[in-house]
Amino acid sequence: MNFQNFLTMLNLVTVWGMVAFIFIYWYRILYILHAFTKEEPLKPTDKKFKYAVLIPARNESKVIANILHSLKKQDYPQDMFDVFVIVESESDPTVGIVKNFGYNYIVRPSVEGRATKGYALDDAITYIKDKGLSYDSYFIFDADNILECDFITKMNMLKAQGYQLGMGYRASKNANENLLAGCSHTLFLFLNTLTGRGRSHFIHKIVLSGTGYFLDSDLVDKAGGFIWNGLTEDCELSYWCYENNIKCAYTSDAVFYDEQATTYKQTMKQHIRWIWGHFHADRKYRKKIRKAFFTKKGEKFAKLDFLIGLNPLIILVVFLALNIIMSLVLGVGFMFEGNLLYKLFFANALKVFLMTYSAFSLFAIITFLADHKHHSFGLIHSIRIALVFPLYLFNFILAFFKGLNKKNLTWQPIEHKGQLQVDNIETKQEQHGENNDEDEVPSNEV
To answer: Does residue 201 fall inside a structural domain?
Structure first.
């Protein structure tokens, strides 16, 4: 066997795989290019919708005061939204903090077999309906989120444009703490800025990443409750919107802050949940959306976008990995035989690895360039993140294999440190010198 010809054929297959990847993903290149255009500003509206703000907050007494404080500082009429904090026990210290702010709390009736965030939200909505309360939309937040003072006002403008689901801009105040936090924030920037914004503009769809979104109550009623209760309820809800032609939008004008994981243990937990939650949601909705593609009118391209999904990227990564592995195996074999061909195969493995690594680093660099007005990374930190970002992404492969052990597929809350402080956020209202003292809760009451 001519191993040099075999190596040439292996590389040729890899190159054609890359060409096919670009050919299939041509429209996502449009998404990326759109990220460099000026975003159309939200249109002011006099219409005010009524919202219920839902915050799952199991044992979140370290951070809950920050989001409640930021809700008190909202420039949207306070009588046009109600806040419901969801806990699992009356003895949770979170309850006392919620009471001090004058907001509502809901104690879940049972968590056995219903440990995910989706079930907590469903319990809250059931409680609200049992109380006879009615809202136009539900806002979904995590306990560690903090909102800019005009967040609800901006999102209300988005809803007034006819969108049934809308997501705001996910910023971070601890992204500079270490490289893990920086890489996590970069991933969300990539998903929202380089793909989410373009997807919102061209096909009126988004793929939710966490919280910071509103959802019309009519959609929940149509679905029969908050039925998206898997490992990644945001992913399931996004796919349900694809299936049912729901008009969605993303805006970077409405800003909220999130706390990123800073330890490898936390990061691994998240990666296992994200990747396996994605697979579970994909398997749950793929047949439904494929059927809807052929039977339902409208939004054909949006459904095609879902059906294509991550498959081309996964196939390409597999091809590249096989190229590297086969080159290394043959290289080791030739080395032990004393055949100098081992240098050729080792060099090829290194070349393909560096090419793959550089491509993922390029994703981070393009993200920073497209989102330079929002992210707070300095030049040096941006370079460091770009250099290690591929390793952060490669960890999803390890998370995939760890997830094969079903014991690792349980939904586990991430402990938040509480380093996000409302007073450290320069809100637009404060930048203009407006006074919000009447809405603030004295520190001795928290």
So the answer is: yes
